[in-house]
Write a structure and sequence with these properties.
The structure is a single chain. By secondary structure, this protein is of the alpha/beta class. It has a 3-stranded parallel beta sheet, with helices on one face.
């Protein structure tokens, strides 16, 4: 797809990972996870608010991928620390 319009977290995350142009509609029941990932990736302008769609504005995925890589590294480090702690406590 050239453009993705989604209201789901997974649609948003996959759009970022697949480097697609996208917008996310925030529903009250699911908004916080979508807003969180967009904030961390610096993509707050991809949240649909009223009629803010600028279909000519493209995403600079070099910048986004750098932020996503940092998020991924922090997540992996966190999981490794948890597993080390669990392993230490099980002995």
């Amino acid at each position: 797809a050239e453009m993705v319009i989604t209201s789901s977290f997974h649609g948003t995350a996959l759009s970022i990972l697949m480097e697609k142009e996208f917008y996310s509609a925030i529903l009250p029941t699911r908004g916080s996870r979508i807003t969180n990932i967009l904030n961390k990736a610096g993509l707050e302008d991809r949240i649909i608010i009223d009629d803010n769609l600028n279909l000519n504005k493209t995403i600079n995925y070099d910048v986004v991928n750098s932020k996503v890589d940092k998020i991924r590294t922090n997540s992996i480090n966190y999981l490794e620390d948890v597993f080390k702690l669990l392993n230490k406590n099980s002995k």
